[in-house]
TrEMBL record:
Claim: Transferase is one of the keywords in the record: yes
Transferase listed as a keyword: yes
Gene3D superfamilies assigned to the protein according to its UniProt record, in alphabetical order: Hexapeptide repeat proteins
Molecular functions (GO terms): O-acyltransferase activity
InterPro entries: Hexapep, Hexapeptide_acetyltransf, Trimer_LpxA-like_sf
Name of the protein in question: Acyltransferase
GO cellular component, one term: cytosol
Organism listed in the record: Novimethylophilus kurashikiensis
Parts of the chain that traverse the membrane: none
Amino acid sequence: MPMFLKFQSAPISILQRIKNRLRHYSERIIGRVSLIRLNSKKDPIWPTANVDKRDMVIVAPTAEIKDYVIIRAFHELITIGDYSQINPFTVIYGGAPIVIGNNVMIGPHCTISSGNHDYQQIERPMRHAGNLIEGPIIIEDDVWVGANCVVTDGVRIGRGAVIGAGTVITKDVAPFAVIVGASQRILKMRM
């Protein structure tokens, strides 16, 4: 007859369970409370966002730059309009001007980059070859950019456009167009 071993853990009192759970979640709770306290002044840039060269980044007081957003203005201004929202983990690199209009929603994990590495100089490592800039990125008013999108340099996204999640924008988008996929297929027009 097989012998079964029975393992028993030491009994944990209900008080100990509560204590363990509070210890586990205390960092999250304290972090949220401190974010609320720090944001009570209605600073549009949340404390965990990383904005380099703040004098080169103009953010409207009613905009929201949320947690862990990275904004780097290298040579030109980055402007973010009224009531626009940049959601967590979005990265904005400005080699050329970037203008984000009013009431724009940019989903989490997006990349907006106005510049590329000059990969045609084969005599130098790409890291030291400089940048190629095709032009500014302009995102007009009332645009919704879904999660995980990429917007490349020299692009204008027209007023009222919707960019589906995961779309790579390499050319201009017409006003009120709904764009999806890597091929930038127009799904429909909002009007």
